[in-house]
Each structure stands twice: as C-alpha cells, then as structure tokens.
Amino acid sequence: MANRKQHRAIAERRHIQTEINRRLYRALTIARVMYFNMLCDQGCRIAPDYIASTFSYLADDLRDMQRLVNEPGNNP
Questions:
Q1: How close are the terminal C-alpha atoms of the chain, in Å?
Q2: Per-residue pLDDT averaged across 32-49, rounded?
Q3: What average pLDDT is seen over the chain?
Q4: Cα separation of 56 and 51, whole Å?
Q5: Which of 44-48, 58-62, 72-76 has the highest mean pLDDT?
Q6: What are phi and psi of 58, to 5 degrees?
Q7: Smallest Cα–Cα separation from 65: which of 10, 21, 20?
C-alpha cells in the first residue's frame, strides 16, 4: 500500500514537471514568434489586440505554473 502511494506521488511529480516544461517551451516559442514578427518589415502593423492577448495568454500560463509549484505536497 505504501509502495503504491509512493509510486503515485512520483508519477504526480513527473506530471507536474512535464506540464511546467511544456508551458515554458510554449512561452519560449510564442516569445520567439512575437520577436520575429516585430523584426519583419511590417512589424509596426501588428495589432495591439494581438500583442495584448498574447501577453494575457502567457500570463495565464505563468500563473498556472506558479500554482502548480506552490501547491502543498508538490515539493519533495
């Protein structure tokens, strides 16, 4: 029984780490796309709504990652 709980805890930590890595990679990819969009000749034509919604999306991801890290029981 204790062994099963231990395996469940390990699997949960792996899931959390995978989720954090996925969101960090997505944030990096989005930041690169936005950077290259700004560098292109038509960079000044990027809609402010696009930029605002992208940063809002990234903020939501970062907030979720912080919640995952700060949940009790997730830190070894």
A1: 20
A2: 77
A3: 83
A4: 9
A5: 58-62
A6: -65, -40
A7: 20
Q: How many residues in the chain?
A: 76
Q: Which residue bears the tokens 């690169």? A: 32
- CA angle, 66 then 29 then 58, to 5°: 35
C-alpha span between 62 and 19 (Å, rounded): 11
Measure CA 52 to chain center. Answer: 17
**Dist CA 60 CA 55 (whole Å):** 9
Token couple for 33: 């796309």
| Rounded CA separation 10/30 (Å) | 30
pLDDT of 73 strictly over 80: no
